[in-house]
Amino acid sequence: MEYNGFTKDFVFGSASAAFQIEGAVSADGKGPSIWDKFSNTKGKIRNNDTAEKACDHYHKIEKDVALMKSIGLSAYRFSISWPRIMPDGEGLVNEKGISFYNKLIDELIKNDITPWVTLFHWDLPLALQKKYKGFQNRKVVDLFGEFTRIAVERFGDRVKNWITINEPFEFSCFGHLLGTHAPGLKSPRAYFHVMHNVLLAHGKALRIIKKLSPEAKVGIVISMTPIHPATDTPKDKSAAKIANEFMNDITLMPLYKGRYPEELWKRAVLFRPKIKKGDMDIITSPADFIGLNYYSREKASFKWYIPILKADISGSSTPEKQFIDAEGKQRTSMGWEIYPEGLRECLHHIKETGNNPDIYITETGGAFDDELSPDGTIKDELRTSLLQKYFKAASTAIEEGVNLKGIFLWSLMDNYEWAEGLSKRFGLIYVDYKTQKRTIKDSGYWYKKLIGEICGR
Ligand code: GCO
Questions:
Q1: Tell me, what CATH number does 99's domain have?
Q2: pTM here?
Q3: pLDDT tens digit string along 164-176?
Q4: Residue 82: inside a domain, yes or no?
Q5: Mutation to probe ligand 1, out of 293, 332, 411 (largest number of atoms < 8 A from CB)
Q6: Ligand 1 contact, 410 CB (< 6 A)
Q7: Residue of 421, 357, 415, 420 lying closest to 79 (CA atoms)
């Protein structure tokens, strides 16, 4: 058998995020999020695509859950849009927003699919950005706790798997340091403050959920991108080391060790936040699992003129058409190298840092330039072959002792890929954005077969 690591109770799911699929951005009393504003700002998004319609999932619950069922998924990870249920981020609760998620959760359960809910997948209520500077302000940490309480009170009778925050690093870095994501800031100070506050928000939310729903399982999702030195020179090696602290250990170390990576924290002296007494206790509150989002690796080379890091890690992430690069490596249409070994590497790194915690791969997958064939099928061999390699790496990691309990593929269907707009297709299901017709891709059928063979679903 090719995938010996997987047992019958392994969770085979797929994932999505509210802003990327729901559309209906101002329907039924939803308030605007920082992403509504950013995606409507000219020049920020490829082709100036907005997410106004996206996959129109808001109006297609039954259909989309039926598709999940037909693939055989045992779990579905989705996020709740904070401004959909609290238009201003605080105060008033929007009952129509609550009804939408109630309907989705009920439909999933009816179809024997376990809901996994992410509380924060980047679409912060715009009002909180305006009034408090968003997660730069610790006030918003408390407001996130309040939002969490409401979500658990309303949905916690049926939702037993919670993810507090999706990818603290990407949210802080792209949104506040590089300015390529909402809210579009370019401030090292904002970056480090948001990072710390988002981790605090995770710890606070975790405690709130545990108190209200002791039987629930709670975790956080981090992304990891192993960074290897571009050459064997000592300078590139130390560039890779600091870059790993910057992208990976900046979340992993505080969560499990209660401190930030040493060298990075030293170099960030002018920008880093004050860590108050008790902060690290909150951040290290024991979680039930950790979610890993894995896509690719990067290479780092020494560049003296890059502030703080003195390392360049931008080399391999330029979005291009899927291609074979100069070294003969296959890349996805995001420009990301297909590197299955890296998945094992990350899983082992978490195992060692976190004392062998339960892990879920909460996202993995790849974007390719899929097209509808004349016969109405989608022949996405490149994606299927990527998935086969990643599943093989995951299965090997389990055999090596990693406590990996499930995989959620990114993504259920093609969707709004943030600054890339509608130009990148990550789905197991193809979406025609004009007609909103969905077609299961060949990779979706491959996944269905795998789930059938292992779980008998
Ligand atoms: C992220 C998010 C997803 C992305 C996916 C592909 O990791 O950035 O969780 O929303 O769409 O990762 O880039």
A1: 3.20.20.80
A2: 0.97
A3: 999 999 999 999 9
A4: yes
A5: 293
A6: yes
A7: 415
